[in-house]
Amino acid sequence: MTKIPILGFVAYSGTGKTTLLLKIIPLLKAKGLRIGMIKHTHHKKFDIDHPGKDSYRLRQAGADQMLVASRKRWALMVEMDEKLEEPDLEQLLAQLDQNKLDLILVEGFKHERFPKIEVHRPSLKHPLFRFDPSIIAIASDAPLAEPTDLPVLDMNQPELIVAFIEERLD
């Protein structure tokens, strides 16, 4: 699957996965780690480009693959056939240049089997850890309503979550 460590952050929509990752990634970068990121979206059609831009217009004209590049970054948009299934995590991991990364973080893909931290808010009453053996820890904003042997991390202390991740990388 991967040459380097992969760690997912999973939860139901609106729980705070992206908010937590926005705090964790700069802390990992400050430690010198090169981070790859894969984010799942439930939106069937989404754009990273904007109407009116040349690349958007070229894609709308029928380009099946549209690569936009500059000195600072490049992005590839690939149009998927409507009949195809949603790509699985392994297909997407193959798109990353893992030789230039130390860690791959994944937001979503909760139904796939790989090491994950569940972002859990007991007030929302949607625990995943009871049903998913690949969850290795829980990041929560309050004490859990049910007991678990998994490590429980305070989602309001991202530096502790980074320390947990660092332990896993060693």
What do you see in this structure?
The structure is a single chain. The protein has 170 residues and is an alpha/beta fold. It has a single domain (6-46, 84-167), classed as P-loop containing nucleotide triphosphate hydrolases (Rossmann fold). It is 22% helix and 23% strand. It contains four helices and eight strands. It has helices at 17-30, 54-60, 89-93, 158-169, and strands at 6-10, 35-39, 65-69, 74-78, 103-107, 116-120, 135-140, 152-154. The protein has a six-stranded parallel β-sheet with strand order 2-5-1-6-7-8, covered by helices on one side. A hairpin with a 4-residue loop joins strand 3 (65-69) and strand 4 (74-78). The longest helix is centred in the first third of the chain and has 14 residues, at 17-30. The chain starts with 5 loop residues before the first strand and ends with a helix. The mean pLDDT is 88.
Task: Give the SSE layout.
Blueprint: E1 6-10, H1 17-30, E2 35-39, H2 54-60, E3 65-69, E4 74-78, H3 89-93, E5 103-107, E6 116-120, E7 135-140, E8 152-154, H4 158-169
Q: What oligomeric state do these chains adopt?
A: single chain
The largest sheet, given as strand count, sense and whether it forms a barrel, is:
6 strands, parallel
Indicate the CATH class: Alpha Beta
Mean pLDDT: 88
Q: What is the CATH topology?
A: Rossmann fold
CATH architecture: 3-Layer(aba) Sandwich
When the domains are counted, the total is: 1
Number of strands: 8
**What is the gyration radius calculated from CA atoms?**
18 Å
Order of helices and strands: EHEHEEHEEEEH
As residue ranges, the low-confidence spans are: none
- How large a portion of the residues is in β-strands, by DSSP E? 15-25%
- The order of strands across the largest sheet is 2-5-1-6-7-8
User: Mind telling me the CATH superfamily name?
Assistant: P-loop containing nucleotide triphosphate hydrolases
Structural class estimated from helices and strands: alpha/beta
Please count the helical segments: 4
**Helix fraction bin:** 10-25%
Overall geometry comes to globular
Distance linking N and C termini: 19 Å
